[in-house]
Amino acid sequence: MLKLTKTQTFLAANHERFRLLPLSQLAAIADTQETSLKSQTHTQKPLELHPSLHIDPKYFVSVLLNCKNIFQIKQAHAQIVANGLLTNLFVSNKLLYIYVQHKAIDEAHAFFGGMREKDPVSWSVMVGGFAKDGDFVNCFRTFKELTRCSVQPDNYTLPFVLRVCRDRMDLLMGSLVHGVVLKSGLCWDHFVCAALVDMYAKCRVIDDARKLFDDMHKKDLVTWTVMIDGYAECGNAKESLVLFDWMREEGIVPDKITMVTVVNACSKLGAMHKARFVHDYICSMKFSLNVILGTAMIDMYAKCGSVDFAREIFDGMREKNVISWSVMIAAYGYHGQGKKALDLFPMMLNCGIMPNRITFVSLLYACSHAGLVDEGFELFNIMWDKYGVKPDVKHCTCIVDLLGRAGRLDEALKLIENMTVEKDEGLWSAFLAACRIHKHVELAEWAAKSLLELQPQNPSHYVLLSNIYANAGMWEDMAKVRNSMTKRNLKKIPGWTWIEVDNKIHQFSVGDKSHPLSKEIYGLLKSLIEKLELAGYVPDTNFVLHDVDEEVKVGMLYTHSEKLAITFGLIATPEGTPIRITKNLRVCGDCHTFIKFVSAITKRSIIVRDSNRFHHFNEGACSCGDYW
After folding, report:
1. Which residue has the higher pLDDT, 98 or 41?
2. Angle at alpha carbon of residue 339, lines to 337 and 345, rounded to 5°
3. pLDDT value, residue 297
4. What is the average per-residue pLDDT within 122-148?
5. What InterPro entries has UniProt attached to this entry (predicted)?
6. Superfamily of domain 392-493 in the CATH hierarchy
7. 24-27 — which CB contacts under 8 Å span 24+ positions?
8. CA-CA distances (angstroms) from residue 55 to 50, 60, 81, 86, 88?
9. I need a surface site. Which of 176, 178, 587, 596 has the fewest CB within 10 A?
10. Is the CB of residue 157 less than 8 Å from the CB of residue 127?
């Protein structure tokens, strides 16, 4: 004998009469009866169904699959109840699945809770439903209930849970789920293993992701894409492109999603030769430049140092959205071409594209890096009144940076004090950097205190404050900051500069002598500096912030990674060709002056991408106008 709820009992008892009624009438009767039964006592006995009654469940499954909205699903639900088929696990699972597919997660959860019997499919659908709905708490809770009920998770459930761990960057939970994978014997399942690779890569545990990836017997396109993207996100774009080459050697044909990932890796690496190769490959594969791929390529060329190539891609796109316009505006901004960035704004409006918060961040950033103070304030004032974009901390940070670079620290300070949005590390970093430029120690100390409260484990903040003290000759205060770093076991982020020559990346650190051409590099650098000094170059030892002899400071300046990379570029590239280098930190003031002199003496165009922006050096001048 089957135990049924009161609503189910009522409907089942009258199934002969009800199953011939239209669905709309049936649903109404079910709702009325549910209300009536709730007010009754619980003394009724469960109905004993006649065992000879047979109703084909396939009909109801077909009805469920054809439901277009939640109202139709509930109608079908009522008919399933009326025909006594809720005890059919196949039908119940399908109903649960349809609720989830139509994002009726509350109805699905309520139905799931009332199911007398659940199999792995039932649990999988519910776990996946919560995951898709973004309800991570209930997703984890349901998964834990599944394991407590000794239900064996399958290769449908586990990837969903792992994706939640990935999206939350919850490495601890991800590791626990990995343990469940091992216990369940699904560690060799292709779908589960791919989800594990994805989770570890997004959580930036790239070595664990790579080990799983290498051990996989079969790697599909999705897994290759995940691994390529993982390396790029973890700061190893070079390995991303190595994997891309390996993938093609294995005969795996990339799709547009993969190519967007590869293009983004090129953007992070800043290697023009790789960018051109990837562009040619996209053309050979006849991939059309849709909004996503086209926008990624605009960003790639801009970050590889060619804003002109970026503009060619932009102009050639048949369809552009607000992100495409914002990326192109930003490209002009960090190449120091603020006027061109601002010229794009009315063009965008004329095309019927309304700006969003990202657009205004790009515009204000462009104003900040070009010294366009009045234009920046005008945009800041109209973004809410005219376009309904409420300023957030990113926009305020741009204005603080704009004022700070212009030396208007008091105005920047007043803006910070009057801000209603929550202040973040980016805002305080911008203000602290401005204090360093204008050597305002008191305000720098105040900004650094606020910054270190937000990010006490970030070594760059301590380094910047210690440099400000050193610039002011406050060696005791500098020593205190350095000691504080030592106590916290924090180390300064090492500076690296890399240059691409003949499709190979050459990387240099300060004082680096590991390069095969190291002897030639130092020999040319010595003679080059002699020529620069004759032309008027004077080393600025303020950028070697140690209390040591002046001669030692000059020696340290001469071996900065930027100088080594450029000298190698002069050796390894044909005369007259541009030299492109990338620095992981902000280029120092002395190196900036050094490169201006080198561009004048060698008649070379030198493009430098640092952590902040691009510098284009030509004939002794920089595109930033010494305003960076």
Report:
1. 98
2. 115
3. 97
4. 85
5. DYW_dom, E2_motif, E_motif, PPR_At4g14850-like_plant, PPR_rpt, TPR-like_helical_dom_sf
6. Tetratricopeptide repeat domain (1.25.40.10)
7. 24/75, 26/75, 26/78, 26/79, 26/82, 27/71, 27/74, 27/75, 27/78
8. 12, 10, 12, 12, 11
9. 176
10. yes
Assign 3-class secondary structure to 35-86. HHHHCCCCCCCCCCCCCCCCCCHHHHHHHHHCCCCHHHHHHHHHHHHHCCCC
Does position 20 have pLDDT exceeding 60, yes or no? no
User: What strand order describes the sheet that includes 614-618?
Assistant: 504-509, 496-501, 579-583, 606-609, 614-618, 621-622
46 — pLDDT class (breaks 50, 70, 90): very low
The answer to which of 124-138, 336-350, 524-538 has the lowest mean pLDDT is 124-138
- Main-chain dihedrals φ then ψ at residue 52, nearest 5 degrees: -85, -10
Cα separation, 325 vs 181, in Å, equals 44
User: What pLDDT does residue 503 have?
Assistant: 78
> How far apart are the C-alpha atoms of 507 and 552, rounded to whole Å?
24
DSSP string, 315-328: HH-S---HHHHHHH
Angle at CA of residue 161, ends 146 and 99, nearest 5°? 75
* Alpha-carbon distances of 345 from 300, 326, 351, 432, rounded to whole Å: 21, 9, 10, 30
Contacts (Cβ under 8 Å, ≥6 apart) of 373: 367, 402, 403, 406, 408
Question: Which phi and psi (to 5°) does residue 46 adopt?
Answer: -65, 150
Please tell me which residue, 73 or 38, carries the higher pLDDT value.
73
Instruction: Region of 594 please: left (phi>0), alpha (psi -120 to 50) or beta.
Output: alpha
Pair 267, 300: CB distance under 8 Å:
yes
CA–CA distance, 111 with 562 (Å, rounded to integer): 64
Is residue 33 within 8 Å of 7, Cβ to Cβ?
yes
At 579, the amino acid letter reads I
Q: What is the CB neighbour count within 10 angstroms for residue 456?
A: 12
Q: Are 560 and 248 in contact (CB under 8 A)?
A: no
Q: For 241-300, what is each residue's pLDDT tens digit?
A: 999 999 999 999 999 999 999 999 999 888 888 899 999 999 999 998 899 999 999 999
